[in-house]
Design brief:
With 280 residues, the chain is mainly alpha-helical. The protein has a single domain, classed as MetI-like fold. Helices cover 71% and strands 0% of the residues.
């Protein structure tokens, strides 16, 4: 069963990559919580006399084509990025975990039907599948969250199914059956807790990629619409000025890169720390 013991915490604390990822994520969360305090300007405030100004003391990351402060827009954009990632992954967990649990526990035709559906979804590249979903649902941030969430459902279902197939054969599950426990109770009380460690790791890794994929959809004009300070939309609006004002695209791109890197490093660290095969 999943347990965050002292050894796991020590392994995580000794992992330099994990600590670097934690630092990046804490910085992101700080920007999300303290955005009104940290942002020097209103992210939507336009001023044409100050448009396309390079980085300076007054504007540390420069201004865009409408004279908006890029630093302020990136800070407020962190709220949108994390919100998209959290809701998208929440959708994936809410759908993928029950499907994987049911498929692995009952097996048979139900397992085959669920897994073949997941295989079909996995056959599509992530961005292409998200594009199809957004095209069917319509443009906008809400539909982008749904699309990205559906993209990650197969990953959760397959991970939970593999763990469930192993756990359902253990003695404590057989004992619960012998004591008259219902299938629903056994799945929730005995099987699901053993799936928590891989779910946590997958959630951390998926958050970074969900933010990247959502930014990609916004870059293509399918997600956030101007003047929303969303990182992908900022990249899209600044691509016409890459020669004479490269800072418009450089800094939002770095924000996406560092966020994805932070979640990946954190996820790798959690995976190593929660691996029960690692002993001190």
């Amino acid at each position: 069963m999943f347990a965050l013991d002292t050894q796991s915490i020590r392994r995580f604390a000794r992992n330099r990559s994990a600590m670097l990822g934690s630092l990046l994520i804490v910085s992101l969360l700080s920007a999300v919580v303290l955005a009104p305090v940290l942002a020097p300007y209103d992210p939507l405030d336009q001023s044409f006399p100050r448009q396309l100004q390079p980085p300076s003391w007054k504007f540390p990351l420069g201004t865009d084509e409408f004279g908006r402060d890029i630093l302020s827009r990136i800070i407020f954009g962190a709220r949108i990025a994390l919100g998209i990632g959290a809701l998208a992954v929440g959708i994936a967990v809410a759908l993928g975990v029950p499907l994987g649990l049911v498929a692995g526990y009952f097996r048979g035709p139900l397992d085959a039907a669920i897994m073949r559906t997941m295989d079909v979804l996995l056959a599509f590249p992530y961005l292409l599948l998200a594009l199809i979903v957004v095209t069917l649902l319509g443009f906008g941030l809400t539909n982008v969250m749904i699309a990205v969430g559906l993209v990650y459902v197969p990953q959760y279902s397959r991970i939970v199914r593999s763990v469930t197939l192993s756990v359902r054969e253990r003695l404590f599950v057989e004992a619960a059956h012998a004591m008259g426990g219902s299938n629903t109770r056994i799945m929730i009380r005995h099987v699901l807790p053993n799936c928590l460690a891989p779910i946590i790791v997958q959630t951390t890794l998926s958050l970074g990629w969900a933010i990247v994929n959502a930014a990609g959809l916004s870059f293509l004009g399918l997600g956030a619409q101007p003047p929303t300070p969303e990182w992908g939309a900022m990249l899209s609006s600044g691509r016409e000025y890459m020669r004479n004002a490269p800072w418009i695209t450089t800094f939002p791109g770095l924000a996406i890169l560092l966020t994805a890197l932070g979640f990946n490093l954190l996820g790798d660290g959690l995976r190593d720390a929660l691996d029960p095969r690692l002993k001190e």
